[in-house]
Design goal:
This protein is mainly α and 352 residues long. The protein is built from twelve helices and four strands. Helix 5 runs parallel beside helix 7.
Length: 352
C-alpha cells in the first residue's frame, strides 16, 4: 500500500469510489458466470484491472473509503483496527445473489424461496438495500414471466398464514423494492435506476394488460367452440346466445382499447411502453386478433367483431413494426460505434 498522504477531500473520494464500486458490482452480478466474483480469485496478471483490489492498496484513505462502502452495501460489520478490514468476505454473498438472478423462479414449485424472500422483505430495515434491489427486481421479473396460483404461506412474523396471489405479491415486492432503492447511496441508484424502471414497467404491463388479454383469449375460445356446434336446425335461442357472447367480447375489447389508450397517455416509466411490451408479446396479440378477424361466421354480430379485431390487428402490427425498426436502427448504430472505436484504436496503435 502507498503512503497515507496526501489526503484528498473525503466527499470527492467517497463519490468517485462509490461510482467505481457500484458499476463493478453491477458487472459482477449481471456479468458472465464464468468470470470470478472475487477480485482475489484472478491471477496476478489480471489483478491490476480489478478496481476493488486497486482501491484497497492505493492509499489508507482509499482503502478505508472502499471498505466503508462495501460494508454499507452488504451489511457486513467493519473492523476499524489497524488497516481496517471487513469482518466477513462479501464475495460469497455476491456469488449467491448472481446465481439467484440467473435462476428461473416458478413460485408454483419454489414456494420455499417465496416464503424466505417475503420473510426478509417484511423487515426491509434488516436487509442491506443494494443486494435487495437486485433480488426483488428479479422476483418481479419472474412473477411477470411465470404467473403462479395463489398459495397459503406460513410467513414468519405473522400471526396467521398469508394467502399470496400474483397481484398481492407483485404489489408487496414493488413496495419493498422501492423502499430499498430509496435507501441505496446515490451512485448505486444511478446504476440501478434503469434496471428498476424496466422491472417495474414490465410488472405494470403484465398486470394491466395481462387480465384483459386473458379475458379476450377465454371469451374467444368459448365463443368459437360454441359457434362450431350451431347448425341450421339449432334453435333461435342459441343464435341469440352467440349474439350475447359476441357483445361481451366486444365489451372486453372496448376495455382493452380504453386501458391501452390510458396507459399510453399516463405511462410513468423511463422505458417506453412499446419497448416493454416487446415484439414477441405484440406478435402473440396479433396472432389472436388475426384469427378473430378471419372468423367465418355469417351474422351481423360477427361482422362487428371482425371489424373490431381487425382494428386491433392493424394497430398492433404497426406498433410491432415500428419497434422492430427502432431496435434494428439501434443495432446498426451500436455496430457503427464499435467499428469507429476499433478503427481509432488501430490508428492509434499504428501511429505509436
Amino acid at each position: 500500500m502507498t503512503s497515507c498522504g496526501p489526503v484528498l477531500p473525503p466527499e470527492i473520494v467517497h463519490k468517485v469510489i462509490s461510482h467505481v464500486i457500484a458499476r463493478h458490482l453491477d458487472d459482477c452480478l449481471v456479468g458472465s458466470l464464468s468470470s470470478p466474483v472475487s477480485p482475489f480469485d484472478t491471477d496476478h496478471s489480471s489483478r491490476a484491472s480489478a478496481p476493488i483490489v486497486a482501491l484497497l492498496v492505493a492509499s489508507c484513505q482509499m482503502r478505508q473509503t472502499t471498505l466503508i462502502i462495501l460494508s454499507s452495501a452488504f451489511g457486513i460489520p467493519l473492523s476499524r483496527v489497524g488497516l481496517w478490514r471487513l469482518e466477513e468476505r462479501p464475495w460469497p454473498v455476491l456469488e449467491s445473489i448472481r446465481r439467484l438472478l440467473r435462476r428461473e423462479l416458478d413460485f408454483n414449485t419454489d414456494k420455499h424461496i417465496l416464503i424466505r424472500l417475503m420473510s426478509q422483505a417484511a423487515s426491509p430495515e434488516r436487509e442491506p438495500p443494494i443486494p435487495s434491489v437486485y433480488v426483488y427486481t428479479h422476483v418481479l421479473d419472474e412473477i411477470s414471466a411465470r404467473p403462479f396460483k395463489p398459495v397459503v404461506l406460513p410467513v414468519p412474523g405473522r400471526s396467521a398464514p398469508f394467502t399470496a396471489d400474483q397481484e398481492t405479491t407483485v404489489q408487496l415486492f414493488e413496495r419493498y423494492v422501492k423502499i430499498q432503492f430509496a435507501a441505496c447511496p446515490a451512485a448505486f441508484q444511478e446504476v440501478l435506476f434503469m434496471r428498476l424502471q424496466h422491472s417495474l414497467a414490465e410488472s405494470a404491463v403484465s398486470r394491466i394488460y395481462g387480465a384483459v388479454i386473458s379475458s379476450v383469449y377465454e371469451a374467444w375460445e368459448e365463443l368459437e367452440a360454441f359457434a362450431k356446434n350451431l347448425t341450421s336446425e339449432t334453435s333461435p335461442g342459441a343464435f341469440s346466445a352467440v349474439d350475447g357472447a359476441v357483445s361481451e367480447l366486444m365489451d372486453t375489447l372496448g376495455k382493452m382499447h380504453a386501458y391501452d389508450r390510458e396507459v399510453r397517455h399516463i405511462w410513468p416509466f423511463a422505458v417506453p411502453l412499446d419497448v416493454v411490451i416487446g415484439v414477441a408479446r405484440f406478435n402473440e396479440w396479433i396472432a389472436v386478433f388475426e384469427i378473430i378477424s378471419g372468423w367465418a361466421f355469417d351474422a351481423e354480430c360477427a361482422e362487428r367483431l371482425r371489424a373490431a379485431a381487425d382494428d386491433f390487428y392493424e394497430e398492433f402490427c404497426d406498433r410491432a413494426l415500428e419497434l422492430e425498426r427502432l431496435q434494428c436502427a439501434q443495432k446498426i448504430a451500436l455496430a457503427e460505434h464499435a467499428d469507429i472505436i476499433e478503427r481509432e484504436s488501430y490508428t492509434a496503435i499504428s501511429d505509436s
